[in-house]
Amino acid sequence: MAMAFMMATKGMCVTEECKKSFMEMKWKKVHRYIVYKIDEKSKLVTVDKVGSSGESYDDLAASLPEDDCRYAVFDFDFVTVDNCRKSKIFFIAWAPTASRIRAKILYATSKDGLRRALDGISYEVQATDAAEMGFDVITDRAK
C-alpha cells in the first residue's frame, strides 16, 4: 500500500498520491483541478479525477457526481483590478442533497484532515448544489 497520512478524525488516511498531485497543481501548474473521494472500505482518501491545465471550472463542476460527496481543489487564475496576475486555490466540499446521510457525515468529519494535508489552500466553499459553487461564487471570493 502507498504511504498514507492519518487524518485527525475517523481514522481516514490521505494517500501520498493526494499530496503529490496537489503539489504538482500548486507549484508546476500541470493540473487545473483535483477531485478526491473517500474509499470507505480502505479508509483512504484517494484521487478520483485530475483535470489538465487546459480544463475549466465548468469541467470540474461537471465531473462531480450528483448523488455522492467529493472534495475538490481548483486553481483559480485571475487578474486583479491593478492588472496583476494571481492564482488562488479553492477547496470545495461537495455534498449534494441526493447523497447518502452516511457519506455526508463521513465527508464532513474527514474534511479538516485533508485540508491540513494540502498546504496552500486560500478559500473554502461548501456546496450542496451547483449554484452554491458557481463560478460567480469563486470569482467573488477571490477578489
UniProtKB/TrEMBL annotation:
Entry keyword annotation includes Zinc: no
PROSITE patterns from the UniProt entry: ADF_H (PS51263)
Q: Which GO terms describe its biological process?
A: actin filament depolymerization
Q: Name one GO cellular component term.
A: actin cytoskeleton
Translocase as a keyword? Answer: no
Q: Mind listing the UniProt keywords for this protein, alphabetically?
A: Actin-binding
Q: Name one GO molecular function term.
A: actin binding
Q: Which family does it belong to?
A: Belongs to the actin-binding proteins ADF family.
From the Swiss-Prot or TrEMBL record, give the protein name: Uncharacterized protein
